[in-house]
Write a structure and sequence with these properties.
It contains eight helices and five strands, in the order βαβαβαβαβαααα. It has 179 residues and is an alpha/beta fold. Helix 1 links the parallel strand 1 and strand 2. Helix 2 runs parallel beside helix 3.
């Protein structure tokens, strides 16, 4: 009996990242499909029923969190790993609640992505940081939480945080602060 090739859908608006991950996964024997936005992702998911998918949390015009339930509705058996350069505790928790099997911070290479798909259970031996997060990191986490509570609406989030909308936009354009 011949083993079938696993189909993997990469959903990310970063074309260079997609190209690099596509090549690495194709070399490892996966049939790779690439989508750069939610609409393209849904078309490919319906047409090809991928077994695996990587989903960028922050697509150019939409949130990967909004796409995740739709993707799993179309392909319920698909294992989804959320990838992001904008990690926060709030988005990690929501991604898992919405059905992702794992959540990785970028940059992540093909081996890390494949390992994330394989991981079935939590690891109680995960190292706990010795120091609390910085005040800048706590601020970033809080902004992400409030933004999520307002469904990504920048104006509503700015009002809730008591800051000017443009100030919030500038903060969101920056990379998240490391611990």
């Amino acid at each position: 009996m011949q083993e079938t090739t696993q189909r993997l859908l990469i959903i990310d608006d970063d074309e260079m990242f997609c190209h690099v991950l596509d090549r690495a996964l194709t070399r490892r024997g996966y049939e790779v499909l690439v989508a750069h936005d939610a609409e393209q992702a849904m078309v490919l998911a319906r047409r090809h029923s991928p077994q695996l998918a990587t989903l960028d949390l922050k697509l150019e015009h939409e949130s990967g969190l909004k796409l995740l339930p739709d993707l799993l509705e179309v392909v319920p058996e698909c294992r989804v790993v959320v990838l992001t350069g904008y990690s926060s505790i709030a988005t990690a928790v929501e991604a898992i609640k919405l059905g992702a099997v794992n959540y990785l911070c970028k940059p992540a290479d093909a081996d890390e992505v494949l390992a994330a798909f394989q991981k079935q259970e939590g690891d109680p031996d995960t190292e706990v940081a010795d120091n609390p997060p910085s005040i800048n990191r706590i601020t970033w986490e809080h902004i992400q939480k409030v933004l999520h509570e307002h469904d990504g609406n920048i104006s509503a989030t700015a009002r809730a945080l008591g800051m000017h909308r443009r100030t919030l936009q500038r903060k969101l354009q920056k990379r998240p602060v490391r611990r």
